[in-house]
Amino acid sequence: MSLAQINESYKLRKERLDFIPENFKRGITSVSTASELDLKPISWGFSTAKTPLWRFPSLHGVVLSSKPVSVKISRGETLFFAENENLGLYATGESRDDAIRAFCEQLMHFYKHYKGLKWNRVTGEAYRLKEIYEKLFREIRK
After folding, report:
1. Which of its termini does the chain have fewer beta carbons within 10 Å around, N or C?
2. Cβ–Cβ contacts within 10 Å for residue 68, how many?
3. Long-range contacts formed by 83-92: CB under 8 A, 24+ apart
4. Which sign, positive or negative, has the C-alpha torsion 95, 97, 99, 102?
5. In this structure, what DSSP letter does residue 20 have?
6. Which residues are 140's β-sheet partners?
7. How far apart are CA 52 and CA 69, in angstroms?
8. Could you report the per-residue pLDDT of 41-54, keeping only the tens digit for each?
């Protein structure tokens, strides 16, 4: 999953939202996605599920999480979305498994990135993420 593919999926979402007139009002107020329209990817009536993940494959072994990583899976018109807002990870795929695989790849990328940074080189959000990756994840070598 490349950054270009991720950006393209959010670009398509924005284009679709641009077609909704500004004065548009829904006839039924109880539609569950109405309040989320500008905040989250449109699920087009498909269900959203949360999947806990504990193990993440690495080139040199396996990375284990001391707490489950909750991955919210939702289905758009043509893509599946996998996301965890706390870690700031968002991935897409043509199938549920592809989206989860892309999510795991991103998690591994950022795990290695933040583990490699020295504490005096991070501030703000980077400090928070480094702390999460340091405390909750550990790598087991093959």
Report:
1. C
2. 12
3. 86/132, 87/129, 87/132, 88/125, 88/129, 90/6, 91/1, 91/6, 92/1, 92/5, 92/6, 92/9
4. negative
5. S
6. 62
7. 5
8. 444 444 556 666 77
DSSP state, 76?
-
Q: Which residues of 44-65 are buried (b: 16+ CB within 10 A; e: fewer)?
A: eeeeeeeeebeebebeeeebeb
94 φ, ψ to 5°?
-75, -20
Beta-bridge mates of residue 130: none
**pTM passes above 0.70:** no
The residue assigned the tokens 């989206």 is 99
Instruction: Write the pLDDT tens digit of every residue in 30-80.
Output: 443 433 333 344 444 445 566 667 777 766 678 888 888 888 999 888 899
Q: How far apart are CA 12 and CA 64, in angstroms?
A: 34
